[in-house]
Amino acid sequence: MRIEETTIPGAFLIEPDHISDDRGVFYESMRSDELERAGGITFQPLQINYSVSRRHTLRGIHSVSSPPGQAKYVTCVRGVLRDILVDLRVGSPTFGRHQVNELDAASGRSVYVPEGVGHGFLALTDDSCICYVVSSTYVPGTQIDINPLDPDLDLPWDCAGTPLISDKDAKAPTLAEALAAGTLSDFDAA
């Protein structure tokens, strides 16, 4: 397993080692001990979510306010996704910047998203399924949504045609609006 920090502090891309034979493939998708060794991350899953999407579905940018905060370990278990992280942590050296990763079921590649970093994806295939292993359970009223088409973020979705997007995401505030409203978490450099 290779664990590499992305351009966003505290966010990691995880590449599993595959063991192949005539029967197929085996790999370890997540190991909390390896996350702790590579990045000092203590990650305790408390909830697992799945989302299934049609091609050109755009979901995000989503985060959770702190408290309770929520870290995510994100894996595409079917299909292919363009996965984008946006640093929403006020005071972070990469505030407002993004990281793009392609996640697909064949590679088993995953992304660790720390608390305060927003996450979204575009389904590149029909019936794409993403798995979120998260560090806190759902708490109504703590969601932070940023419009994924915020022109100031200018995220490289590269969608052929108009993406399928929920009303909630389409009407979500821009990053500047969320910052002005004081809904974003502070960066903890520790």
Question: Could you characterize what this model shows?
Answer:
The record marks 138 as: Participates in a stacking interaction with the thymidine ring of dTDP-4-oxo-6-deoxyglucose. Belongs to the dTDP-4-dehydrorhamnose 3,5-epimerase family. One of its GO terms (biological process) is dTDP-rhamnose biosynthetic process. By secondary structure, the protein is mainly beta. It has a single domain, classed as Sandwich (Jelly Rolls). It has helices spanning 32-39, 167-170, 175-181; strands at residues 2-5, 12-15, 19-21, 24-26, 47-53, 58-64, 72-78, 80-87, 98-104, 110-113, 117-123, 128-134, 143-145. It has a 6-stranded antiparallel beta sheet, with helices on one face. Strands 9-8-11-6-13 form a 5-stranded antiparallel beta sheet, with no helix packed on it. Strand 1 and strand 2 form a beta hairpin. The longest helix has 8 residues, at 32-39. It is globular and about 55 Å long. The model has no long low-confidence stretch (mean pLDDT 96).
Defining traits:
190 residues, mainly beta, Jelly Rolls, six-stranded antiparallel sheet, five-stranded antiparallel sheet, 3 helices
Radius of gyration (Å): 16 Å
Number of helices: 3
Instruction: Quote the CATH topology.
Output: Jelly Rolls
Low-confidence stretches: none
CATH superfamily: Jelly Rolls
Q: Helical residue percent?
A: 10-25%
Which sequence of strands runs across the widest sheet? 1-2-10-7-12-5
Largest sheet: 6 strands, antiparallel
Count of the domains: 1
Task: Supply the helix-strand structural class.
Answer: mainly beta
The global form is globular
**CATH uppermost class:** Mainly Beta
Protein name: dTDP-4-dehydrorhamnose 3,5-epimerase
Family: Belongs to the dTDP-4-dehydrorhamnose 3,5-epimerase family.
InterPro entries: RmlC-like (IPR000888), RmlC-like_jellyroll (IPR014710), RmlC_Cupin_sf (IPR011051)
Site (Participates in a stacking interaction with the thymidine ring of dTDP-4-oxo-6-deoxyglucose): 138
